[in-house]
Design brief:
Helix 2 links the parallel strand 1 and strand 2. It is built from five helices and two strands; from the N terminus they run H-E-H-E-H-H-H. The N and C termini lie far apart (46 Å). It is 43% helix and 4% strand.
Length: 134
């Protein structure tokens, strides 16, 4: 007789929604499309079973979603500034990756090629396209 524990496995979308709830995300500003079908299906499944997830604010484009989320953060006082992040790191002796209340961080650069060279360096072909390893 098998006495191994029963493990309940769920989809990545399930764990994504669960994570949003755990970290206290209040709204999901997004532009859901055909590539988000698993997430949309999981949201419907949660609704059917009476589970709560952050309400979705549908946006016509990703840029609109980013700016709406930024505006919401400013209005509610939850916006993070580099100076406050740095101060928290100093006071609590944390590295950037240990600051757990940062969910996204935008870095504005003059142009993409210069930042790619800095992160990736040139390849033998002179091409600088790569994925930064962080």
């Amino acid at each position: 007789m098998d006495q191994s524990p029963r493990v309940s496995l769920h989809s990545t979308s399930h764990y994504f929604l669960e994570g949003l709830n755990e970290i206290g995300i209040e709204f999901l500003f997004s532009n859901l499309g055909t590539d988000h079908a698993p997430l949309i299906e999981e949201m419907a499944r949660w609704r059917k079973h009476g589970l709560k997830h952050p309400p979705t604010i549908l946006c016509p484009h990703e840029n609109v979603a980013v700016h709406m989320a930024g505006g919401y953060a400013q209005v509610t006082g939850r916006e993070k500034h580099l100076s406050s992040i740095y101060r928290k790191m100093q006071e609590k002796h944390l590295t950037f990756s240990e600051v757990l209340d940062i969910y996204g961080f935008r870095i504005l650069v003059k142009d993409t090629p210069s930042i790619r060279r800095r992160w990736c360096g040139p390849t033998s072909s002179g091409n600088t396209t790569c994925t930064p390893a962080w």
